[in-house]
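Hi R.,

Here's the chain you asked about this morning:
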Amino acid sequence: MIQVQQVGSRIPATRASNRLEIVRITNIRLDNFRNYQTALMEPHSFGNIILGENAQGKSNLLEAIEFAGTGKAYRAAKDFELVRHGADNMRLEINFEAEGMPESICIALKSKTGALHANALTASLQRDIKVNGVKQSSTAALKRRLIVVSFKSQDLNIVRGGPAFRRDWIDVLLGNLRAATVGRLQQYQKIVAQRNRLLRTISESGRLTGSDREQLKTWDIQVAKSGSEIIKERLNLMSELIPLAETHHERLSGKREKLTSEYIFKSKSARDGSYNFDEDEDDSASLREMMKSFNIEDLKNAQTKDIAKIIYLMLKDIRGEEIARKQTLIGPHRDDIAFALDGKSAMNFGSQGQQRSLVLSLKLAELEAVRNALNEQPVLLLDDVLAELDLLRQDVLMEMVGSGMQTFVTTTHLSSFKPEWLADSQFFNVENGSLSAVREPIPR
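And here is the predicted structure, written out as C-alpha cells:
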C-alpha cells in the first residue's frame, strides 16, 4: 500500500518485519534553553543517567527531548518560559537515527520585541521549526519522527488530576500512533470555538432567533460528527491499551488487585436521564435506551453514527444551559476516563503506592502500544521517578528497557537503584545549568 505524505517525512516501519526499528539520539545541543546557556550531549546508545541536585536543570534536559518529539513543552504555559532569563532567543537541535537513517530536528524561538522576560505579558516570539534542514509550518511535522515515551512525577495527574490530564494523555498517544488524529482534534477544537462564539452572541443578545436556531443546528451536526470520530478513536485505542495495563498491574500488585477502566461519555452524567426530542427527529427506541443506560461496552460496540446521534440529541437537550454558560458542554472535550482498583475509584481510594503502580502500568502499556503500532523502539524518558520505585517495579520496567531501548534517567541519588540500571550506562552531571559527562557516577 502506497502512503502519501509530506515531503521530507519519514515513512514508519512496516509491520511486516518482526524486527523492532531502534530510535537513538546521537547528540543534543541547547542554546539558551531554560537555565542552559549552552549544553552539548552525546548520549549513550542505551543507558543515560543524569545526576544532580534539585533545580539544577535535569528535568529541563528531558523536557527539551520531549519538546522535539511532540512539539509540546508540558511544563511551559507560554513559549517565552523556555528561553533562558536574560536572553531573547532559544535554540535546540537534536540529531538521531531512525530506521538506520540520520534525522535532525531543530526548534528556535526568537523575540520580536527585544527584552523578553521584562515584558513577559506582551512577549511576541517567532517560532522556527526545521526537520532535516527543511523549514516546517507547524509542530505537526514533528509527529511520528522522534518517538518518545516519558514517565515523570506529573504523570500521576493521569490518576489524581482532573479530566483534562486524562484527555491530554490519550489524545497525545493517539497523535503519536495515528497521524490523522492530530488533524481531527485540531478541526474539532475549531468547531467548538466557533460554536462557543455563537453561544456567547446569543447569550449576550438575550434572545434565541430562528436564524440562531438554524446556525446552532449546523454547528450541532458538526460537533456531533467530528466529536464522535474522536470518541471512537479513543475507545479503539483504550481497547488495545487497557488490557496491556491490566496485565502489568496484576503483576505489580502480586495479583492482589484488578485494574479496570471506564470511558465517561459526558452525556452519561448529564441531567437525570430524561431527554427532550423533537417529533421530527429519527430517535429509535434502541437509541433512546442506549442513551439511558449505556456503558463502556455499549460505546465500543456502537457505530460512529450512533455516537454522533447521541451527542446531537444531548446538545439539543441542554441548549438553554449552554447558552447561559456560553460554552459547549457535550463532546469529547468534556469526557473523562475513570480508573478503578478492585471496583473502587483509584483517584478517591487508591494509596500513593497504588496510584504510582497504576500510572507505571499505563506507561508500560503505552510503550507496548507504540512498539506494536509503529514497530519502533521509542526513546524512554524517566524524570526523577525510578528511584521512587521499589525493586519489583524496577524489575518490571527493566524488562521493558532491557530489549535495547535508549533511556534517559534523571535522579538526585543512586542509592536505591538496582545494579542493572547502573551497568553499561553513561553518567552525566548537571549543576546550575552546566552539563558534563563523567566517567564514574558521583556518589550521592
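One quick note: Residues 163-347 form a domain with the Glutathione S-transferase Yfyf (Class Pi); Chain A, domain 2 fold (CATH 1.20.1050.90).

Cheers,
M.
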